[in-house]
Amino acid sequence: MAEKTRISFFVDDVGAYTTGVPGKPRDEVCPVDASALKDFLDYVKDKQIACAISVIPGWAGALLTKPKNDHEQRFAEVLATIKDYPVDAHMEIMTHGALFDFSTMTFRSDRNEMEWLDDHNVSVQEYRDYFLNTIKVGRELGVCYSGLSTPGTHPDMNPNVWTALLDLAEAGEFPNYAVPVFATIEEGPETFSPRAMAKRDKFAVYDMPSGVWDHFASWRNSPDWMSVDHYLNPEGNGHLAAIIKAGSPMALFHAHWQGLNPQTGLGWKTFQDMIDRLIKIYGDRIIWQRPSEIAQQIGNDGKE
Ligand SMILES: [Zn+2]
Questions:
Q1: How far is the CA of 155 from the centre of ligand 1 (A)?
Q2: What confidence tens digit (pLDDT) does each residue in 167-181 have?
Q3: All domains of the chain, ordered by start, with CATH?
Q4: Is the pTM here over 0.90, yes or no?
């Protein structure tokens, strides 16, 4: 049993545009101002918590290295400040949608990244090249990727993904020896440790599942998916509470920008209420760290 549980969360689908905006058709893509991202980052810093957020250079068809308006330009500028916060930047791959053609810097219409990650015919080399190209685009944005969050969940991902990430860690393309990956949600088991999926000497790639479904309005940005009590109720019970009470080495949860963002997300207040309750009830039993720190520090099957 760990003395304290290392805790963190992932925010997926972060971008200059979002869906599920109240008063608009559900799938309509609407801008989210860069100030929403800054407000979120400031909140994380002020509360002294820590997390990873996805930075998707080609989200919603907008290529942020070539902003087509002031809105995208401002969003890209705030992304470049992530390094000043206790926040990891994760690839959620280049577009979260269509595969990207890096030779022409255009979106491909024939394949998408989600099915490509599960396609067992894709080689290590192809994944490695694609990830490295995404890392390079990140650098252009002033973003240093430390891990990967997959678009969609991937319990049966091609193992070549792990190997490709390990190769890139070894080549010094990630800032740390340990590379965290968020690919699955496993609500139920009560203890979690980073799981080594590929390892060579001091370098390793870790599967780091979220242990709680997103109830901060979720990607649907729906009031039906909002519940602080799902994480922990006033008596200190709930799915996140159970992980901490079990003395788990780590506890991870996740959120989506659609529901979480402080501008159009219905779950922003739910999220803040959950954080306040968590700190109040379990503050002395948890340590906030970025996923890359957790992977680096307790990556060996939970042993320090
Ligand atoms: Zn996503």
A1: 15
A2: 999 999 999 999 999
A3: 5-298 (3.20.20.370)
A4: yes
